[in-house]
Amino acid sequence: MSQELFDEYAGSGKQNYALYARYAAQSLVQLESECEIDVFHAHGPGGQCVNTADSAVRMRHIPTGIVVVSRESRSQFRNRQLCLQKLRHKFELLAMPPKQRTATRPTKASNQRRLNQKKARSAVKSLRGRYFEEED
After folding, report:
1. What is the pTM of this model?
2. If DSSP codes are grouped into helix, strand and coil, which group holds residue 86?
């Protein structure tokens, strides 16, 4: 897959579900070849165990611009594999179109019940007005 293919889909205004499905079906080696890989010192919980070497990995999928980070393991190789799995999982999620909602209408009986409740509530509220005594 190339940047031109992604740009073609993006420029058409269509959803890219099919394109993301293609990316999700690629092998991890192909995905890695399309990524820009950055390694850095991990930080956070774990202290010396995680920040002893450049073991954290950040991958940016160049055609789509999606970025994933992994710092779970002390091994850079393992973090690369985890990044690729996370990237594939993101593509799988983006490849699924949202479920179509079905329009529903309330029944006539439920509309009538709602209107009757509103009338009853309105009558109660209208009795809240101030009471003025007429002085003769």
Report:
1. 0.63
2. helix
